[in-house]
Amino acid sequence: MQRNEEANESSIGRSLRVLFADDEPSIQELMRLELPRLGHEATICPDGLTAMAVLDENEFDCVIVDLDMPGAGGLDVIRRVREIAPDTESVIITGKSTLETAVAGLRHGVFDYLSKPCKLVEIEAVLQRVRTKRAMTLKVRSLERRVRQAEGRMQLVGESSVIDQMQSLVAKVAASEATVLVRGETGTGKELVARAIHELSHRVDGPLVTVNCGGLPEQLVESELFGHRRGAFTGASEHRAGLFEVANGGTLFLDEVGELPPALQSRLLRVLESGEIRRVGDNHPIIVDVRVVCATHRSLEEMVSSGDFREDLLFRLNTFEISVPSLRERMSDLLLLTKHFVEQRKDIIPAGTHIMTDEATEIMQQYNWPGNVRELANCVEHALVLCDELPICTEHLPPRIQRAGEKLVYSSLIDTSSEKEKAAADATGECERTNEPQNLKQIEMQAILDSLGRNEGNKSRTADELGISLKTLYNKLNQLESTETNPEAA
Fold first, then answer.
1. Which CATH number fits domain 162-323: 1.10.3720.10, 1.25.40.70, 3.40.50.300, 3.20.20.60?
2. How many Cα atoms sit within 13 Å of 173 on the Cβ side?
3. What is the pTM of this model?
4. Residue 182: which of 471, 174, 199, 152 has the closest Cα?
5. CATH, domain range 2-143
6. What is the domain class of 401-489 according to CATH?
7. Cβ neighbours, 10 Å, residue 246
8. Cβ atoms of 256 and 194 closer than 8 Å
9. Please, which residues have CB within 8 angstroms of residue 35's CB and are 6 or more apart in sequence?
10. How do residues 422-469 score in pLDDT, each as one tens digit?
11. Which of 425, 453, 431, 441 is nearest to 483 (CA)?
């Protein structure tokens, strides 16, 4: 396919392969002479049946057909074109130029139509527009291909068992045409799953269109999804294709599908069942070939119970379900994900370079990550802004993660200190009975722990309050930890 596209790109601007079908001998002879003179390769057919037989054996850039021919009419030929060569543009020539003719042509995806008797200059102008459109289409496809080659396939990063199971499900459902519902908390990577499904499917050369249903104003959702005709509402100054049309032949990813208004839920159900859409303000259906993948972080079952989501739509969307695990459920992947995000933002990482210090790693592994993988990516980006060179240290992490780590450290110190004091009191039974004063080191450590408590584990504020340097505070805490692990050192 790539060689064909490159060959087509090289031919742009020189000629088109044109099939012309008309039952009038004089027009056939004229086109047999004039189309090559205009620089195009021409195949002339006397009727629709011959044209369809030729289409089965050859490829064309454009098909020009008379609407009324014996045996098989122009629309029959165009239907065959859509079945076997959807990229081929179709043009109708007719002596019955009516609104009904135009509507019938548009419904069958006709590029343009001409009224008999048509001038050669009109045919030349239509072919020029076909050539321009095909050139743009091929350029877009070429760019998409190069982007895919540069970025590689969409990769779901992780080696945990839950990710392995999810990747297996993605590969299986991608090979089908089933509608997929992706569930998971915000920030877990539901869109990445949708992209992986698209890229592993036979629709990979078609478009992947993404829309956040919760990010569109309610009054514009219908127009965005289904399009509108000019004059359909105030401000609709031109015809506009909706996202279902844009995604034709590919995949449409509806993120946060639970945010769709009830009226739009009904229309979405109709599209999924019939494959037809209607633009706002238009009574004529448009047939689309779109695979739908939806995602939500909400419980659609609870929304059904509360009357906020249609139960029949839930059943239709939930043909196949994939649950994306939270980062808390796959903490064994944290270091791998961190390395992945660092490599995305660093051009060169020397071999053997440590990505993070042990202390930073421990704090990140103890953090709860309510924002999941998206929060981790933002954390890495924040750290790389502050860190001139790897590894990432504790002070490079966002303050909220540092504070969480400090609270954990403080909590651990309080617990171990209390246990130590209780054990000592039980062993001697002397301190409380004799009211003997504690030694200086004990008083000092108690003052540090009390200050840490008042400052919610923030070491910088604690050092300021005690009038000592941050380095001295760390040394004191290290002494306390070593005392707990080696009581004889006390």
1. 3.40.50.300
2. 25
3. 0.60
4. 174
5. 3.40.50.2300
6. mainly alpha
7. 15
8. no
9. 18, 20, 42
10. 554 454 444 444 444 456 677 778 888 888 878 777 777 888 888 887
11. 441
